[in-house]
Amino acid sequence: MEAWDFFGAADLNKINKAGYATPRGGDKGAYQNHVYRNNKVIVPFEHLDYVDLTQYADGYVVRLFPDQYFESPGVVRQRFAETGSPVVGRDAFVLYRSHASLEAFPPLADWEVRWLSRDGRPVARRGNRAVDSGEYVLRLSNAGATRPKRYEGPPQGIFAPEYAPAQTNYECQAMLSWLIVHARSSPYTTSQALHLKAILDHSGLLGDRLERAGVTRNGLSICPLCLRVIDYEELHKSVDFSQVDGLLNAALQVEGATRSTKVNLFHLEPLVYEALNHRPTSVAWGHATCNTLLGQRHCYSLAELQEAGRKIGFLDEDDELVTFGWISEDFKMIRSPHGAVWVQLSDDMSADEQAASFDATQDRPLAPPAAEEHEQ
User: By the 8 A CB rule, do 290 and 268 touch?
Assistant: First the structure.
């Protein structure tokens, strides 16, 4: 029995989904989809140099593309003979994504397609005690009558940035449940959530932390980017991008065709390979449109920016500095004193562009925001 079992079916489903790893287009990359985050992960070979593999307590496997593993047909690159390198068939597999790559770098003669067994018997699904055998996986799309679609080999693991240990994943679900209870017009009361409160209090996840992080305001759940109060009905209503400046192209959708809701899982810190950022201090509910605008950026709260003390402003006609908000050190977010937000949409900023905001601690000018920004 879970601490949020008093929820209705729709909310239980939303909390369950928040606990799943769900990469878009995951099947093409041999990813598992809609399984809990405490599962074996796939680590792309190109990320190995800056990933701490010990953080994946539930196991990992390294994904190699054929041209990464082979120097030429049948010739393995020297790197894979070195001590400590991933071993295909043991802690690595080769993923063929196109017919061309299969023809250019065919599997070695003694290789076989990956398969699963449990207690010595072949099984169709990954699960407890399932063991991987084989060296490669095929995810070949249809390329005409002579090159049909070929999907061979089971999913190998989840998208690594979405990984979370079981306890962490549970605490994230508990936090998100608490925020559903405290959405405006929620059908639930705090008295129904006393077990939830005890769990979160025990882990030090409540108190004024939520207000400072911009996850709640006056006890009500808010979107961490735009700071608008979350209405309970938004958790289940379909999103409509047509009302959002800068996202008009996203509005070309058939009514009812999108499965995204107005409010969905929101991470204050982006999910990356270098760190495990799916944790209870980084999750909230936020608007789908705000998620889109934020992209892979840290969502700075007003309190964070004020503490950093980097004010931003402009010179008026009398050369007097007029400040109107605070800017993050990476120049990617500005907030006004009331929380209005500007988000940098382009990461292409020159050094000259990073020169005219105002550091309140040193009383000196810094840089104006980039041209491509959006006020929410």
Answer: no
